[in-house]
Design goal:
Layout lengths: L1 E2 L3 H12 L7 E2 L2 H10 L5 E3 L8 H11 L8 E5 L4 H9 L4 E4 L4 H13 L3
Parallel strand pairs: 1-2, 1-3, 3-4, 4-5
Helix pairs in contact: 2-3
């Protein structure tokens, strides 16, 4: 799942996932992401922090609290927020990885592959 309110950035992220053989579904708000997390059975979630309705921190926490059947879905935060406090808050909310925009797509893909592989 790609959770990004900027439609162009959402599409760009979904395209680089597709180029690496990964299917994805879009979400544009934290609320939409939470609803989708209940039904789409995602292998991983790319999550922006600055989102309408519910920010990425709260979204991440709620997804972790609900954890479908105790299943741990890797959450990778992709954000413009580059302070150490923001990074720490991301990990404290339950993120497995944190990347600052602009990010290296290959690094994100490698991280996703490792995180998804460790779940199998």
């Amino acid at each position: 799942m790609v959770v990004e309110d900027d439609a162009e950035m959402n599409e760009l992220q979904r395209e680089f996932l597709a180029l690496n053989g990964m299917d994805s579904v879009p979400a544009y708000t934290g609320t939409e992401a939470l609803k989708l997390s209940r039904t789409c059975n995602a292998d991983a979630i790319l999550l922006d922090i600055m989102l309408p309705e519910m920010d990425g921190y709260e979204t991440c926490q709620k997804i972790r609290q609900e954890a479908n059947g105790g299943r741990h879905v890797p959450i990778v935060m992709l954000t413009a927020m580059d302070s150490e406090d923001c990074r720490q808050r991301g990990f404290d909310s339950g993120a497995d990885a944190y990347f600052v925009k602009p990010f290296d797509p290959d690094e994100v893909i490698n991280t996703l592959q490792v995180l998804i592989g460790s779940q199998e």
